[in-house]
Amino acid sequence: MRAVVAQPAPDRPRILGDASRPTPSTGRPRDVIAALAETARAALDEVGRPLHDVVAAGCAAPGPLDHRTGRVHVAPNIPGFREVALADELSAALEGIPVFVDRDTVIAAIGEGLAGAARGQRDYVYVTVSTGVGAGIVSGGRILRGASNTAGEVGHWPIALAGPRCGCGSYGCVESFAGGRNLAEQFGSVEASDVFRAERAGDPRARELVRNAEAALEALAIGLVNVLNPARIVVGGGIAEHEPDHVLVPMRRGVRERAFAVASSACEIVASGLGADVGMVGAVIAAQQRAAGAGEWLG
After folding, report:
1. By 3-state DSSP, what share of the chain in percent is helix, strand and coil, each rounded to 5?
2. In 145-277, which residue ranges form alpha helices assigned H by DSSP?
3. Distance CA 210, CA 212 (A)
4. Are 91 and 211 part of one and the same domain?
5. 271-276 average pLDDT score
6. Residue 109: inside a domain, yes or no?
7. pLDDT category of residue 214 using cuts at 50, 70 and 90
8. If DSSP codes are grouped into helix, strand and coil, which group holds residue 271?
9. How far apart are the C-alpha atoms of 213 and 196, rounded to whole Å?
10. What angle (nearest 5°) sits at the alpha carbon of residue 298, between those of residues 167 and 32?
């Protein structure tokens, strides 16, 4: 987990302090919240600022969750983290500072839209290709939430009639082919980087896995363009950042060759403009806007 101290600026928030801590292995909500609060205090200590100087805090969390109440329904990768009033409990741990919680991919989409590669766009999608695959969608200048606030779970878009079992319980999902955790598990390694390294060395199994991942991302990009008609698809996440030839290149190729011509001509696929800071910048902007009552477009 990571926390920053930032102040508003015209182009993008200026990060003053930065601290990181490992997520507690227990997964117990009280341990995770205590670690979040400790990380936030460490970031403040780095710049010598007291807690009472903070106007509001933004928190990016895995979903599904309710961004209005700040309750996380379940965090799939943190065992035991279910139905946690994260905003209220973290606020209490930070002496009453208002805390605004949202899904990590939505937070990233906010950051890219106001300070990154989608700045000025009213119709765009932020896609993360990392441990998993997900998205934040902005349509007509508003975050697309859906009936249960889960819009953007594009990693669980089925793009094959058969395929590896996905963590969601289904199979043939984009994430089951292209998510870093699944790539590593199917190759029998610890990290997805091992798969790409082996692919470059000519390993046939790694080559097959990487080609399948590319095909899944191609299909995802085509679907996003045909269904949502975005002006821009911004792609971030660890795998996208370190392996653009296996992420951005096939996504662009798929849209160019197979998407509806009118929709594809209106869309460009670009790398994240904020890189590893996308979640931090997005959280600062979201907290700033919601604390000021200016976040209607956030839904």
Report:
1. 45, 20, 35
2. 174-178, 180-187, 192-200, 204-228, 238-242, 248-258, 261-265
3. 5
4. no
5. 97
6. no
7. very high
8. strand
9. 11
10. 50
3 state DSSP class of 58: strand
Sign of CA dihedral 220, 221, 223, 227: positive
Side chain identity, residue 223: G
CB atoms within 10 A of CB 229: 16
> Containing domain of residue 53, as a range?
2-103+277-298
77-92 exposure pattern, b = at least 16 Cβ within 10 A, e = fewer: ebeebeebbbbebbbe
Average pLDDT over residues 255-266: 98
Residue 21 identity (one-letter amino acid): R
**What pLDDT is recorded for position 5?**
96
| Same domain for 150 and 33 | no
Q: How many domains does the chain have?
A: 2
Closest CA to 164 of 181, 180, 182: 182
CA-to-CA distance for 216 and 281, rounded, in angstroms?
A: 29
């975005």: which residue's tokens?
230
Name the helix (H) or strand (E) containing 103. strand 99-103
- Does 292 share its domain with 264? no
Per-residue pLDDT of 55-88, as tens digits, reads 999 999 988 999 999 999 988 778 788 999 999 9
**pTM over cut 0.85:** yes
Q: 154-178, pLDDT tens digit by residue? A: 999 999 998 999 988 899 999 999 9
The sheet with strand 133-139 has its strands ordered as 142-143, 133-139, 124-129, 232-236, 268-271
Residue with tokens 């950042």: 241
CATH number assigned to the domain comprising residue 91: 3.30.420.40
Distance CA(90)–CA(14), nearest Å, equals 23
CA 70 to chain centre: 17
